[in-house]
Amino acid sequence: MIELPESTDFHTGSQPSPVPFTGRVGLLYIVLALTSFGYSLMCTGIYFYTHHRLGWTLPQNLMLAAVQGAVYVGGSLLSHRLAARFGHSRALAYIYGTVGLLALICATGLPVPVLTGVLILYTFVTAHHAPLLESLISTGVDAQKLSRRIGIYNLIWSGVGAITIAVDGSIIERWPLGIFVIPVVVHIAAAVLVAFWNQDAHEARTALHQPQECPPELLAVRTLALWLSRLSLPATYVVVYSLLAMMPSLPIMQHLSPTRQTVLASVWMISRWLTFLVLGATVWWHTRPRLLLLAAVVMLVSFLGVSFGTQYLWMIGCQLALGAALGLIYAGSLYFGMVLSQGSAEHGGYHEALIGVGACIGPGSGALVEFIAPNTPRLCVFTVAGLVSLTILAGAIATKLASKNARTEELQDALYKGD
C-alpha cells in the first residue's frame, strides 16, 4: 500500500490550512444547505411520505426510486451544457427557481399520478445543480485547498440531509403539506442568493490560477483512486436508494411511528457526516487508494446487517459502519475527479451521473424481483447485494492490474521524499 506520513501534505509537507467560511464561497455553501434541505424532503425522504400518506408498498417505492435515478443521470450529464450557455451562476438561478415552482405545484393537492410525474421532473431539474455548484467551489484553487473545500461541501449537504431525514417523520405526522411547502421557500431563497455570486470575478481568479503540475507518481495514485471510487460510487447509491425505499417496510420498523422510523433511518447519514468531517480535516487517505476497496466490502456486509437486523442496537451499529464506508467512497470520487480535472463541471456531471446510475439500477432490480416474485423482500436484498459484489470484484481486478504495472518500490520512495 502506498502511504504518506499522516501529518504531511504531498505538495507542502505540512497540514493544509483551513479554508475560512467567508466571502463568496461561503455564500455558495449557504445555497448548498438550502438546496439540500429541499432535495432531502422531496427526493431522499419522499419514500416515507408515499408509504404513510399515499399507502404505497415496497414495489411502488422501488419503482419511484429507479425512475428518479434514471432521470438524475440525464440531468447530471446535461449540466455542463447549461453552464456553457448561461454561465454557472445564471444557470443555478434558473434551476433553483424552476424546482421551487415544481415544489409549489406539488403543494396544490395533485392527483397521485400527476404528483408522481412532477416529483420525477423535480429530480431531473435538481440533478443539474450539483455539478455546477461543485465546479464553482473547486476551480481556481490548489489540491490542498480543494480538499478542504470539498470537505466542507460534503459536511454541509450530508449534515443537512441527516437532520432533514431525522425530522421528516415529524413533518409527515404533523404537517404533511410541509414536505412541499418548505422546499418552495428554500429553493426560492437559494435562487435569490445565487444571484449575488460574482461570476466575472470568479472566472478572473480561475484564469489567474496556475494549476500545480502533478508528478507522475502522484498522478498514478490519484488515477487508481479515481477508478476505485468511481467503480464503487454507483454501488453506494444502489445501496442508499434501495435501502431508503425498503426502510419503511423493514420488519424492525413496523412497530415504530413515522417520527421514530425516520430518526432510526438517519443513523447512517450521521455516520457519513462524521466520516466527511475526518476526511475533510486530513490528507492521509489521498495516497491510500486501496482503502476504497475495503470500504466497498464494509458497505456490502453492513447493508446486509441493516436489512436483516432484528435488534435496534445491531441495526444502529451496522448503519454506523455503512455510513463510514459510503462517506469514504463518495469523498474519494468527488475529490479525485475534481483534482484531476481542475474542477471541471463536466467531471462533476460524471460524478453525479454515476450516483443516478446506482439509484436506478439498485431499486430497479429490486422492483423487478418483486414483479417476478411478489412479497419476497429477502430476495430483493440479495439481488442488491449481488450488484455490490460485482463492484467489489471489478475494484479488486483494477487494483491487481495497477499493482502489476506500477514500479512499487520507486513509487513508494518518490512519495515519501515528496519528489
Please give a handful of descriptors for the protein shown.
17 helices, disordered C terminus, mainly alpha, Growth Hormone, Chain: A, 419 residues, 0% strand, disordered N terminus
Describe the structure.
- With 419 residues, this protein is mainly alpha-helical.
- It has one domain: Growth Hormone, Chain: A (Up-down Bundle), CATH 1.20.1250.20.
- Helix content is 79%, strand content 0%.
- The chain contains 17 helices and no strands.
- Helix 3 packs across helix 10 and helix 13 runs antiparallel to helix 16.
- The two termini are 18 Å apart.
- The N terminus and C terminus are likely disordered.
Parts with pLDDT < 50 across at least 5 consecutive residues: 1-22, 407-419
Q: Rounded to an integer, what's the Rg over CA atoms?
A: 21 Å
Number of structural domains: 1
- Classify the secondary structure makeup into a structural class: mainly alpha
Judging from the principal axes of the Cα atoms, what is the shape?
globular
Helix and strand topology:
Layout: H1 23-44, H2 46-53, H3 58-86, H4 88-106, H5 112-126, H6 129-138, H7 143-174, H8 178-194, H9 199-208, H10 216-246, H11 258-265, H12 267-280, H13 290-308, H14 312-341, H15 345-372, H16 377-405, H17 408-417
